[in-house]
Amino acid sequence: MSLTKGNASLIVFLLFVGGLLQAQILQPITWKFSKKQINDSTYQLKFIANTDKDWHLYSQFTPDGGPLPTEFEFKKNKDVKFIGKVKEPQYTKKFEDVFGVDVYFFETQLIEFTQEVTIKSNQTEIKGSINGMTCKDDVGCIPFDEVSFSFDLKRTIAESYKKTAIDSDTVAVANAPIVAPKSTSDCKDLIIDGLVMEESNTEKESYWIIFLLGFGGGLIALLTPCVFPMIPLTVSFFTKTSGSRRKSIGMAALYGVFITAIYVLLAVPFLVAKIPPDTLNEIATSATLNIIFFVIFVAFAFSFFGYYEITMPSKLTNKMDSASDIGGIIGIFFMAVTLALVSFSCTGPILGSFLAGTLATNPDPYNLLFVMLGFGLALGLPFSLFAAFPSMMKSLPKSGGWLNSVKVILGFLEIGMALKFLSNADLVEQWGILKRETFLVIWAIIGLAMAAYLMGWIRFPHDSPLKKRSPFRIGLAAFFALTGIYFASGLFGNSLGLISGFPPPVFYSYSNKNSDETKHEIKGLVAENDFYFAQQKAQALNKPLLIDFTGWACVNCRRMEENVWIDPEVNEYMKNEFVLVSLYVDEKMNLPENEQFISCKTGKNVKTVGNKWSNFQVVNFNSNSQPQYVILSPQGKLLNSPIGYSSKEEYLAFLKQGKQNVSYR
């Protein structure tokens, strides 16, 4: 580094003062080092500096004439490839009269530098040193002694680390005591010391919403050609065979009850089996299951397009139809079963969409029950209603080509939902085959294709010629066209707030210049990914810890991040007042064998990083829904009631209450 003549004598003086201070054994900075394996040959090296209060460390890019910059020197090694340069946190720029130039310094006491490397041999050692200077306004500057470091790196395939894992030999942040999980030789559940958590009613309050979603799905299913024509036929049957209006109403009502009961019974096994609360989440975020859903939904879509029919086995349908001739209550029950089987080709994909969506966003057996209840009730209610008021059937539109149009539109939507499941699998596994831009392009095409179909420019096998375009059809076509254009606008910078959480997140895109594909950053807000490391950091900075229980495939998590976290007030408050840790409950990376265990709480085998944090959430907070936000003091005390998906105002109030309560706990 070169110095200007005007500042050379000043620097010499500062170095002299630094020498005197060092003679007094003043050491305002300490260094710790750790590594994180990203895949079998790539590592991220971490250099963590911890400065005393009011002492500043300087950026690598500090201009000449100022204090000494922080410099990293690596010994040459032919088996090591460095990916870019050493990365550092955002520095503060300020003009200093004493130096006569702008200086670039870090305001925080805890500063983390990172360097990514790829190694070629099975075992490699990386050595080097750090040089630099720390200064304090009322004391002076101290050039710290050359700090040596060494990393032993090994290529491993069987236990390949990727994404956000922190290696087991991560060194604790300086001056921050390690807070180890409580465990016994028989029980290794990770329990926060001293934490007392009561069961939350948040999930129970959401059951009404889940029920209404299922009810809406049932109403959509009513408009399909497998169900809609059955309404007047079935009501007419009850009216003619009952002999009296009162009896016909009773038979139709019983028919509707049986339809509802049939769908509810399909959810009962999930409740009886007493599935552990995090098992459904693990199933829902499984790449294999999401790929299976993708294939099934594509198959359903082409069935809706009219290329083939997906029906229940004819033998089963015929048996149920024959049983319906018995008469009485048993006959009515089998009539309901027959309707469920015959209409499966239309109701199956719709019900499957709502079940899969519920499973992905809030995996809870009772949510499946309420979806089924709402769906079955929406299907059964019209039969009872029209039997009681036959004159209302005159207001129903006549069956015709419009019913097939409904099926085709649902087919397009099935293709879109199939794409969402493929996106979930891709995001969880980080394959990189369906990033945000690709997803938006395909959905834009789907929207425009639906508009073209409604205008008669595209036809499918069962479509009759379109003789005229009604105002409703034209309006619906315009809506879908605008939907396609809206998706396309996301390619040009539109934040797509109306559908946030549905497409892949912004950080999972081709435009993300970060070399670490898994780095999750929202407007400069970067989260840790290990609770105990983050707690040590919170203790070192004396800041409360904000836990974000999240998932790669969590839709509501992305909605919070893309609608609430990006708000300037929320974003700055989170950056300045908290240490943020995001714990991914669907992370599929295997834990080292010595960290795997069987949970005493759930009885599940905790084998992956996602299992670990999902179990951690269930054990400590009696919840398995995401997102869930929890604020703890640096010592691990709960500061206020955790919350889930919420508005900006509710979330900000939650943050401020937690911050305010730090001094009282």
In words, what does this structure look like?
The chain is 44% helix and 16% strand. It has 665 residues and is an alpha+beta fold. The protein has 3 domains: 5-154, Immunoglobulin-like (Sandwich); 208-390, no CATH class; 521-664, Glutaredoxin (3-Layer(aba) Sandwich). Helix 8 packs antiparallel against helix 11 (344-361), helix 11 packs parallel to helix 13 and helix 13 runs antiparallel to helix 14 (436-454). The two termini are 49 Å apart.
Fold blueprint:
Layout (H helix, E strand, L loop, with lengths): L4 H19 L5 E9 L4 E10 L4 E2 L13 E4 L5 E8 L4 E5 L4 E5 L4 E10 L3 E14 L3 E15 L47 H4 L1 H16 L7 H13 L2 H21 L2 H5 L6 H6 L2 H18 L9 H10 L4 H15 L1 H18 L3 H24 L12 H29 L6 H19 L16 H19 L31 E2 L2 E2 L4 H11 L3 E6 L4 H11 L2 H10 L1 E6 L12 E2 L6 E2 L2 H13 L6 E5 L15 H13 L5
Helix pairs in contact: 3-11, 3-12, 4-5, 4-12, 5-10, 5-12, 8-11, 8-13, 9-10, 11-12, 11-13, 13-14, 14-15, 18-20
Number of domains: 3
Low-confidence stretches: 1-25, 157-185, 198-205, 515-519
First-last Cα distance: 49 Å
What is the alpha-carbon Rg in Å? 31 Å
> On the 0-100 scale, what is the average pLDDT?
76
Which word captures the global form?
elongated
Q: What strand line-up does the widest sheet have?
A: 1-2-8-5
Strand content: 15-25%
Largest β-sheet summary = 4 strands, antiparallel
Number of helices: 20
Helix content: 40-55%
- State the secondary-structure class: alpha+beta
Number of strands: 17
